[in-house]
Write a structure and sequence with these properties.
The chain is of the alpha+beta class. It has 3 domains: 3-136, Aminopeptidase; 160-309, Aminopeptidase, CATH 3.40.630; 313-409, Nonspecific Lipid-transfer Protein, Chain A (2-Layer Sandwich). 25% of the residues lie in helices and 28% in strands. The chain has 11 helices and 20 strands. Strands 3-1-2-4-5-6-15-7 form an 8-stranded mixed beta sheet, sandwiched between helices. The protein has a 7-stranded mixed beta sheet with strand order 9-10-11-12-13-8-14, sandwiched between helices. Strands 18-17-16-19-20 form a 5-stranded mixed beta sheet. A hairpin with a 7-residue loop joins strand 4 and strand 5 (100-110). The chain is globular and about 60 Å long. The protein starts with a strand and ends in a 12-residue tail after the last helix. The relative contact order is 0.14. The structure holds coenzyme A. Coenzyme A is lined by residues 23, 108-110, 115-121, 143-145, 147-148, 151. Keywords: Acyltransferase, Transferase. Residues 319-416 form the Enhanced intracellular survival protein domain. InterPro entries: Acetyltransf_17, Acetyltransferase_Eis, Acyl_CoA_acyltransferase, Eis_dom, NAcTrfase_Eis, SCP2_sterol-bd_dom_sf.
Length: 421
């Protein structure tokens, strides 16, 4: 075994970027690395190093299906970096509850020369153990491929949707509200005012991911390569909402859209749909249940071009996650959670309702059994218990209890993350 795991240091970033760039097809410039240091905390990253390599991407060969062992003396670590994984510190909003801490797993890659030897498994094992030891109840990620993360306990918690709005057909109904209050703002004003609007939006939006303060500095750098052929970012500001967008050959590409109130949302939509010379408004930045269609005379003006998994959640602490949310109706059920890695496993009595919830270990007989990815899928109201039961992912001793849990877990709004990472 020549592969071992080490905590990253600030000096490792260029080599980490090389591994990430090879996996995802990115050329990181020196400026990119400087920018990334704003948001990337090396302490949150684990590296797999192969001390059997001599540099230049040799095939190593020492690592086996056993993956990698934890190495000591991180600062003196040697060997080529052959695997990278880490996280951003987020919080995520459960339905009706206050945001809970969640590590946002990111920058996951293993060198093509070292694939399928258990290095990803070892790195995630190391990260999850660290999160659990720190008392973080949840890990989340967005997945490059759908087949990787279920085995590590992740389930699809929120859905992403891309839409294209044909401006020539997008006529607002005569009785649609016209609250106004939107104006253009400078980047400096956005930096000052929008983080608070975003915080307020997160508080009421299930599945919303918080943005650590440096995230705003990073996003608003607006480097040319972030523009993907479009203009720099324009800003529409409302006291309770924000839209960031770019123009690109007649297409308005919305990159950020959040509104604390429906008035702000409608006011922002009105301005987006009022731009002369724009043929299409395109965005992936709206929730599945955005009311736009219902504001238009022709709902078909809004065309969905993609629907798919967005944020995946891996529950590490079942009582913390289930007690953090509110439930649409009162529920009292005993859940048996299966988790091969142990973190979320156990039998728990969940008592919850619209005003609060508690979830405690119990020896009582289970009403329902489910695996940990299924728990991640229902935790934010994104997937119905009933749907998972039909797939055999939730089994219920008493169908009436399953129906009750199904009704209880449904959230008032579709969970939606609003931040891609
Ligand atoms: C995905 C990736 C990180 C996997 O790394 P790896 O070290 O080869 O993975 P491991 O050997 O630890 O595999 C662990 C398990 O996941 C499975 N697995 C790994 N990659 C998979 C994939 N792309 N699709 C389906 N299953 C996969 C393995 O078969 C293995 O399954 P098992 O242990 O249940 O039998 C690596 O292939 C890679 O860097 N890909 C390109 C970048 C990428 O997609 N990163 C993910 C970003 S979200």
């Amino acid at each position: 075994m020549t592969v071992s795991l080490h905590r990253a240091t600030a000096d490792d970033l260029p080599a980490m970027a090389t591994v990430d760039g090879r996996a995802f097809g990115i050329d990181y410039s020196d400026q990119d690395l400087t920018d990334l240091r704003l948001i990337l905390d090396p302490d949150r990253f684990v590296l797999a190093r192969d001390s059997g390599t001599t540099g230049g991407g040799t095939t190593g060969g020492g690592a086996t299906r056993g993956g990698a062992t934890r190495g000591g003396g991180d600062h003196a670590a040697e060997g080529e970096i052959v695997g990278v994984a880490g996280s951003f510190p987020f919080a995520i909003t459960p339905p009706g509850g206050a945001p809970i801490a969640a590590e946002g797993v990111t920058w996951v890659s293993v060198a093509a020369t070292h694939r399928r030897r258990g290095i990803l498994r070892a790195m995630l094992g190391d990260l999850h153990a660290g999160y659990a030891a720190a008392g973080t109840p949840l890990a989340v990620l967005t997945a490059s491929e759908g087949g990787i993360y279920g085995r590590f306990g992740y389930g699809v918690a929120t859905t992403g949707r891309n839409v294209e709005i044909d401006r020539s057909r997008a006529v607002l109904r005569a009785d649609a509200p016209d609250p106004g209050g939107v104006r253009f703002a400078s980047t400096a004003e956005v930096r000052e005012r929008v983080p608070d609007i975003h915080r307020r939006w997160c508080a009421g939006q299930p599945g919303a991911l918080s943005r650590p303060s440096p995230w705003w500095d990073f996003a608003l750098l607006d480097r040319p390569h972030q523009r993907r052929g479009g203009t720099s970012r324009f800003h529409l500001l409302h006291a309770d909402g924000y839209v960031g967008y770019r123009l690109d050959s007649g297409v308005c590409r919305v990159v950020d859209f959040f509104a604390v109130t429906d008035e702000a949302r409608i006011a922002l939509w009105r301005v987006l749909l009022a731009m002369d010379l724009v043929t299409t408004v395109a965005t992936g930045a709206v929730a599945d249940d955005d009311p736009l269609r219902w504001l238009l005379t022709d709902a078909r003006a809004v065309r969905t071009t993609r629907v798919g998994d967005d944020v995946w959640a891996r529950v590490l602490d079942t009582p913390a996650v289930l007690a953090a949310r509110r439930y649409a109706v009162d529920v009292d059920a005993v859940l048996e959670v299966r988790d091969p890695d142990g973190y979320a496993a156990g039998r728990f009595r969940l008592r919850g309702g619209p005003d609060g919830a508690e979830c405690l270990p119990t020896d009582d007989a289970a009403d329902l059994a489910l695996d940990v990815p299924a728990l991640g899928a229902i935790a934010f109201g994104g997937t119905r218990v009933h749907t998972l039961a039909r797939a055999g992912r939730v089994s219920a001793a008493d169908p009436a209890v399953a129906r009750r849990l199904d009704a209880a877990c449904t959230a008032e709004r579709e969970p939606y993350a609003g931040t891609h990472f």
